[in-house]
Design goal:
Elements (H helix, E strand, L loop, with lengths): L1 H5 L6 H5 L5 E6 L5 H17 L3 E5 L8 H4 L4 H15 L4
Parallel strand pairs: 1-2
């Protein structure tokens, strides 16, 4: 998924989630690359705006951003994304 996001301008992410009933994230891993992390934040914002529920496997979504990410200048963005992911996964079981 991250490879695909790197080829799509973030302004088009809204089209990626249009009309979806649920989004599945398989084999989630902790992000360590800042570019990937910021693209993922932009996608999470679009998913949240569309209120599409998220189900996932792998690393818990509250651990998707590594410690070095949470200690950097984009900390608030990453924490907001985690909060949104948690809100979107609540009640999807």
């Amino acid at each position: 998924m991250l490879r695909h996001l790197s080829r799509v301008h973030p302004s088009r992410y809204v089209r990626l989630v249009e009309g979806l009933d649920v989004i599945g994230l398989r084999d989630v891993r902790t992000l360590h690359d800042q570019s990937d992390a910021l693209r993922f934040v932009a996608l999470v914002d679009r998913i949240y705006d569309a209120q599409v529920p998220v189900v996932s496997t792998g690393v818990p979504l509250d651990q998707v951003f590594g410690e070095e990410m949470l200690g950097g200048g984009y900390r608030k963005k990453y924490l907001r994304a985690v909060s949104r992911l948690i809100a979107l996964t609540t009640g999807t079981d």
